[in-house]
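User: Let's play a game. I give you a shape written as tokens, and you guess the letters that built it. Ready? Here's round one.
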């Protein structure tokens, strides 16, 4: 055990479960089941994290009442005995790797969407789920459940728990966070009933207590019951106060719940300057909520809380997690996106290899891909996650080759490191003096500090895999041919696009601004994509008067939805003017002229004009090498400018072909 983290890595106990350490993989929906059934993708996903050393795995949200309670089309289901064999296979596979496991069970309630279920959603009250920028979703008005229907759903939860026990799980977790039914009963805004299930906190917690008691009847006291709860909510539609959260925690302790996983919720329709994207979220941001609940229980009972608290919230830093445990703010640490990005996070910490951990950059792709796109969860850094059967096997090359990679951005580095892991001899050539490519610009806008760890990770991976790296070396097609490679991977990135209007030469590129180029007081940013609006935010924070002009009728349409909403909220509060369906016509000495959708031209002041109109692939060397080398590939932005996730995936897949 790594002596730096004696609390984090020492054994712990939740209910009757003996855990090898105090880490918990929290439930994160991946939407990769086969019509609710466990498949190879599901098993491989969790087995890889169990192999990676985590103590307890909370298997993702699983529906107790399909289709009415489904969240996504790929959600796991446990509302019938036919799902038990697959669940048994999953539980056994996790146990064989030394981890314990519980199944998170839930009904989506008013959050269930008709497009997926084919039905009107139901909830404790006929109150529609409001828009929340954290989820980017809202929903139609649900039908209020009758008391007999509530009793039926309570029994479905309990029967789901019994099936989990029959499948070999060590316990269950009741999901009562976000827009799921558990949270809806606890919330005074979602639950406005006037009967025994609504009104005061005692009535609003009745749904949970009935379920817990029935689970105990069916499953016994040695079957763990955990509740994942919002200690408090914020925003216009917040329905759980801190006092409510403390009361609920005490009731759960009184009821013999084995642990609480503690988070907070928000129902703000618009983000403000105090709201930060996950790219800027601090380490262990939710552990203080555990401490608050412990304090509340002690105040109500006169004795220290006895129910274990599982805290976290970006617990990517082992040092921060260790401190939270040492300070007794919480008793266990939940790990989420850290384990999606790096399945063996805990093992690497234990082996004092933290510099090998792939960081979660906080991009939000894992959430956005499911809730917004209706696809499997994926990761910008982890090319395997959510693809195929989640097979992390990297096969050795049957024939070792001399591989040349041109370009040291994320796609090129991924291709180089995986090719080297397979046994190829790999040389990487990068024309600049540093690894990272477009990442150096991606980290420059405000609130991007969590992305900064990616480049050091890439550099370290090249060292570990023995890639021969040549920085400051621009290679021509002839240079490559002189090396006599067996395979060439072009990851040469992008080149700037010019704006074909009068005076365009007076403008500066957004990348120059991100690199620190000075700007005047009145700045016009031409282009409202992700680069444009993030550059606008940077300038607005400097006190500039900023206007963004976008040809399309939507700003930053391809941006991850939660991050987009937060940045747009910041722009509004910073006073940035956003003009959509407008086209810049001319750049003048101290102004620009643009035309709106009605053909009306307007001139506005502009000391500095910033171009953020995108880039195009740089394919010169790739085109010149066509037909001249045994194997030739083009990946990343030089194939198609896009998201980090696509570049990493292309690099990974390319290396497996070599």
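Assistant: Ready! My guess for every position:
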């Amino acid at each position: 055990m790594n002596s730096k983290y004696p609390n984090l890595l020492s054994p712990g106990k939740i209910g009757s479960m003996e855990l090898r350490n105090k880490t918990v993989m929290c439930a994160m929906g991946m939407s990769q089941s086969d019509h609710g059934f466990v498949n190879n993708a599901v098993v491989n996903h969790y087995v890889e994290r169990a192999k990676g050393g985590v103590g307890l795995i909370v298997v993702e949200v699983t529906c107790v009442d399909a289709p009415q309670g489904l969240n996504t089309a790929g959600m796991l289901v446990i509302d019938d005995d036919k799902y038990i064999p697959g669940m048994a296979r999953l539980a056994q596979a996790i146990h064989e790797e030394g981890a314990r496991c519980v199944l998170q069970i839930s009904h989506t309630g008013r959050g269930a969407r008709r497009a997926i279920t084919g039905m009107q959603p139901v909830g404790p009250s006929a109150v529609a789920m409001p828009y929340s920028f954290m989820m980017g979703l809202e929903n139609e008005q649900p039908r209020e459940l009758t008391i007999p229907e509530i009793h039926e759903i309570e029994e479905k939860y309990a029967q789901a728990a019994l099936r989990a026990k029959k499948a070999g799980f060590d316990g269950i977790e009741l999901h009562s966070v976000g827009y799921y039914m558990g949270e809806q009963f606890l919330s005074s805004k979602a639950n406005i009933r006037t009967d025994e299930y609504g009104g005061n906190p005692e009535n609003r917690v009745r749904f949970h207590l009935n379920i817990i008691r029935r689970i105990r009847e069916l499953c016994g006291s040695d079957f763990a019951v955990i509740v994942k709860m919002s200690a408090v909510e914020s925003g216009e539609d917040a329905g759980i106060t801190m006092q409510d959260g403390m009361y609920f925690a005490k009731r759960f302790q009184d009821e013999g719940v084995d642990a609480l996983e503690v988070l907070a919720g928000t129902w703000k329709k618009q983000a403000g300057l105090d709201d930060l994207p996950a790219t800027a979220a601090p380490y262990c941001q939710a552990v203080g909520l555990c401490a608050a609940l412990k304090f509340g229980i002690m105040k109500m009972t006169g004795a220290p809380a006895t129910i274990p608290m599982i805290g976290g919230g970006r617990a990517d830093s082992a040092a921060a997690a260790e401190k939270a445990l040492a300070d007794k703010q919480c008793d266990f640490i939940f790990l989420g996106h850290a384990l999606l990005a790096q399945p063996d996070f805990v093992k690497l910490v234990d082996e004092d290899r933290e510099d090998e951990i792939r960081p979660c950059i906080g991009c939000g792709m894992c959430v956005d891909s499911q809730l917004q796109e209706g696809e499997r969860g994926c990761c910008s850094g982890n090319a395997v996650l959510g693809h195929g059967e989640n097979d992390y096997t990297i096969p050795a090359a049957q024939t070792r080759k001399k591989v040349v990679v041109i370009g040291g951005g994320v796609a090129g580095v991924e291709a180089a490191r995986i090719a080297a892991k397979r046994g190829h001899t790999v040389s990487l050539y990068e024309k600049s003096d540093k690894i990272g490519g477009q990442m150096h610009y991606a980290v420059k806008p405000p609130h991007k500090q969590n992305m900064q760890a990616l480049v050091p990770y890439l550099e370290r991976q090249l060292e570990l895999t023995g890639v021969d790296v040549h920085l400051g070396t621009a290679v021509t097609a002839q240079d490559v041919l002189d090396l006599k490679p067996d395979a060439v991977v072009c990851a040469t990135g992008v080149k700037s696009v010019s704006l074909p209007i009068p005076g365009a030469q007076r403008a500066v590129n957004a990348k120059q601004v991100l690199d620190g180029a000075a700007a005047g007081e009145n700045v016009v940013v031409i282009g409202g994509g992700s680069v444009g609006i993030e550059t606008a935010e940077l300038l607005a924070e400097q006190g500039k008067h900023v206007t963004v002009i976008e040809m399309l009728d939507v700003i930053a349409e391809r941006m991850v939805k939660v991050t987009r909403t937060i940045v747009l909220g910041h722009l509004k509060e910073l006073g940035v003017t956003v003009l959509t369906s407008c086209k810049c016509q001319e750049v003048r000495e101290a102004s620009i002229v643009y035309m709106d959708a009605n053909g009306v031209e307007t001139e506005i002041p502009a000391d500095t004009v910033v171009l953020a109109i995108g880039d195009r692939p740089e394919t010169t060397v790739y085109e010149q090498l066509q037909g001249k080398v045994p194997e030739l590939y083009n990946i990343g932005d030089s194939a198609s400018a896009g998201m980090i996730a696509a570049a990493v995936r292309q690099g990974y897949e390319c290396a497996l072909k070599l």
